[in-house]
Amino acid sequence: MDSNYLIKFIEELKDIMAKNKDYLIELDSVVGDGDLGLTMSDGFKAAYESVKESSENDCGKLLYTAGKAMSTAVPSTMGTLMASGLMEAGKSLKGKENIDNADIVVLFDSYAKGVQKRGKANIGEKTFLDGICPAVDSLKDSLNKGLDLIEMSNLSFDEAKKGFENTTNMVAVHGRAATRGENSRSLKDPGACVAMLIMEAFKNINN
Question: Which residues cross the membrane (predicted)?
Answer without folding.
Answer: none
